[in-house]
Specification:
435 residues; alpha+beta; five-stranded mixed β-sheet
């Protein structure tokens, strides 16, 4: 490989690397691809099924010495104005051929057939083009878009959603906002007649801000920011019958939706949180510790401590004392409960014993009273009869209160008992019984 060719190839590699786009919101999104295509090469970009091509730039001619034009050729023919550094913009031509499609193909030599001759005829020319693959919503599945970091586009020139009965609903994670941009690939020369008036493509309904924002395409800018939402959701209503739409139908038009800012942080049980725009303050319930985070490029930047580790020694000692006091109270409560239960059982046993004794005493007393009453009644009648018999038939002789033993021995002996006919007197000596 010649030194000039090597130098040109290295320059081309550096340009291709430098033109790769960075990520959006900290997430790798679409990347711009820039390459050189020589005279007999073909430009054939290709994206995945859920993406389409968007041309960023396209220049055809003899721009510089590099992979397609070597230094020896330039030395042989010279470096005049139409021999080197001569070019023409062919972006609009590639927009028609490739933008809005999953893949396309066009030979570099075909640009000469399109009357694009920026340099002397017969010289080798090349194409320097850059494009990117953008993600497009599949409206066949749903008219609801939920963003997750990567921008999503809607082809409004072919969209079936966006009507009054079925609008586009776009949502972002809570805490983030939605940036809506209009990507109109109509070439500037075609927009000249409409530059002074608003080409309304529809309107945005921001219910959080209570506003309706008109989507206008004014001027020659390919991408125009339309609105940044106040909340995390919006609705899109499209106008498919725009004046001049027939002349611009071949050029695709997209709405671009991006989730900007940082999503909300869910605090733990030990933390409290306060947010104001792109600043969050997080603190601890158990102490006075707090930390501040700032939203930068879609990410929260800052450090968050651990509330359990940030507690002071006095707070830790207080918590330990509280735990020990709670354990002591639990032990005392258990002992009191056991004693109370034991006393209750003893009281129940004593009450049952007292009731049994009382019942037994009442029953025995009733029986004793009944027997005493019967005995007193019978004994009174017997005594009366016995007194009569003794006084009339058997006089006795007493000295004081004592009866003479010899006389008592000589007196007859009688027994009284209760019979069927009343009180009977039995003569123990003769064995006779008298009623």
């Amino acid at each position: 490989m010649r030194s000039a060719d090597l130098t040109g190839f290295l320059c081309w590699m550096m340009i291709s690397t430098a033109k790769s786009s960075s990520s959006i919101n900290g997430v790798d999104s679409t990347k711009e691809i820039s390459e050189e295509y020589c005279q007999f090469d073909s430009f054939n970009p290709q994206c995945s099924n859920d993406e389409v091509i968007i041309m960023q730039s396209a220049v055809y001619g003899r721009m510089r010495i590099g992979r397609c034009i070597d230094a020896e050729e330039v030395e042989a023919i010279g470096d005049g104005p139409r021999q080197l550094a001569c070019s023409v913009n062919v972006l609009s031509l590639l927009d028609v051929r490739c933008s809005g499609k999953t893949k396309c193909e066009m030979r570099v030599s075909d640009f000469s057939k399109e009357n694009r001759q920026p340099c002397f005829p017969g010289l080798n020319k090349y194409l320097e083009a850059s494009y990117e693959c953008i993600k497009v919503a599949d409206e066949r599945r749903s008219c609801i878009l939920t963003l997750s970091g990567v921008p999503v586009h809607v082809d409004i020139s072919k969209s079936l959603c966006g009507t009054t009965s079925q609008p586009w609903t776009v949502e972002a994670p809570k805490g983030q906002k939605l940036l809506v941009s209009l990507l109109d690939l109509t070439p500037s020369e075609s927009q000249t007649a409409h530059n002074s008036q608003c080409q309304q493509r529809g309107y945005i309904v921001d219910r959080t801000a209570r506003r309706n924002i008109s989507m206008c395409a004014v001027g020659s800018r390919r991408e125009k920011q339309l609105h940044t939402s106040a909340g995390n959701s919006i609705e899109i209503f499209l106008n498919h019958q725009t004046e001049g739409a027939e002349d611009e139908a071949e050029f695709p038009k997209f709405l671009k939706f991006e989730a900007v800012g940082c999503s909300d942080i869910v605090p733990s049980e030990d933390n409290w949180l306060k947010r104001r725009d792109d600043v969050i303050v997080i603190g601890c319930y158990s102490s006075r510790q707090s930390w501040q985070l700032n939203c930068i490029n879609g990410k929260w930047v800052g450090a968050i401590g651990n509330c359990s580790k940030e507690m002071s020694k006095s707070e830790q000692m207080r918590d330990t004392d509280d735990e020990s006091k709670l354990s002591e109270k639990a032990e005392v409560l258990a002992i009191v409960s056991i004693c109370g239960f034991t006393l209750a059982i003893c009281f129940i046993i004593v009450c049952i014993g007292a009731l049994c004794l009382r019942r037994y005493y009442i029953q025995n007393k009733a029986k004793s009273d009944y027997r005493t009453l019967n005995y007193e009644s019978d004994f009174g009648r017997s005594k009366e009869l016995s007194g009569q018999k003794t006084s009339s038939a058997f006089p006795t002789h007493r000295t004081g209160d004592a009866v003479n033993g010899s006389l008592a021995h000589q007196l007859p002996s009688y027994s009284l008992y209760l019979g069927q006919d009343g009180v009977n007197i039995k003569d123990n000596h003769h064995g006779q019984t008298n009623p």
